[in-house]
Amino acid sequence: MKISICTSFIGTLDYFVTKGDLFQRVEPKTSVQNEVSDDIDYYLFTNLNELELVPYVGSHWTIVNVSQKPDSRIENDVQHSRYYKFQLHNYFLRTNCHYDSIIYIDHYLQLNPTVDWNAIAQDALNQASDDNLALVQTFHKDEFNSIYFEAQKIISGCCDSAANINGALDFLYMLDPQIDLQQTILFRENWFFVYCPKHRPTRDHFDVFWEHYMNPKYTTKRDQPLWNFLFLLRKKTSQVTNLVKYLDNPGIKERYKIYYDEKNDQK
Fold first, then answer.
1. d(CA 54, CA 3)
2. Is the pLDDT of residue 39 over 90?
3. Helix, strand, or coil here: 40?
4. Of all residues in the chain, what percent are helix, strand and coil, respectively (each to 5)?
């Protein structure tokens, strides 16, 4: 199974480094080069200059400059970066690269190099169906349990304005007013996930998300309210487990208080 590990960052070098320090990278250069598998390709999609990143990014990473927007509807850096989170399968299709599985991680995360990603991806694919996506995600690190609750936290944390968030919630309500945005759900997080792009229903789900995300009526740059809403709207499921155990960042578990037991893993 051919795997690509991808991350995206559109911004300044200062923020690239500061964000990594905040979450305690294992070391300045990502991962251990002599443990990098030949079956895995690493891509960093960024507007930053490759020479600037040399002290901070291991040489096994292919740095792809993405100064030009891949979608004419993109209006800001956040949307630009999100393209290389949710549309990687289409990017690779255009570049004639064919991967059996894609792992997305936020740029400050470090993966444990001993993990068998082939087995994780193959298990997701084996369980996949039209309604069960070939996708593995983690529970929300702050234990959010509803779309509305996350929306209020975005506002209180000054991650977006109340006007933008409420406009986005209105958009979700318009898509299906029967869905209760305050209901308790299995809330997925998008900082780290694994998916199999050759499974068409999975690929389609990512594409449906992108079209809604780029709709001007979805008035926030935050992706998780919409992402979790679409599982309800489209009646889809996926594997949700404790992916955090596969990270090497020493501060992550302590900071976000993630203590999920394997027996509580859910689909």
1. 23
2. no
3. strand
4. 40, 20, 45
